[in-house]
Amino acid sequence: MSSSNKSRIHAFLIASAMALSVGVVHAEDMKGRIQSIDKSARSFTIASEVIYVTDKTDYENDYERFEDLREGHYVEVDIDRRDGRLYADDIEFKKSKQ
């Protein structure tokens, strides 16, 4: 295989990898105790990470809305990283650390 063909294949593979990563949302889970709550920013902190809620955030178990969150509660949160911030898709109250 010529050097020219190797370069084209390499460029194609790099372009393909970049195209596949565009628009990817990084969803992940986070568990821990709520350390603090900022009502004006509609956010809370777990393990020194600030997590924001939106109008689309779902609440489970004893939670029905943002105002139900309490410092010290153990929660499991499905989060998305967007625009350099963490956003809660789903917040689930856990009775105890599992």
UniProtKB/TrEMBL annotation:
Among the Pfam families in the record, one is DUF5666
Ranges where the DUF5666 domain occurs? 31-92
Q: Please state what the protein is called.
A: DUF5666 domain-containing protein
Organism whose genome encodes this protein: Hydrogenophaga intermedia
Keyword Signal among record annotations: yes
Q: Which UniProt keywords apply?
A: Signal
State the InterPro entries in the record: DUF5666
Q: Where is the signal peptide?
A: 1-27
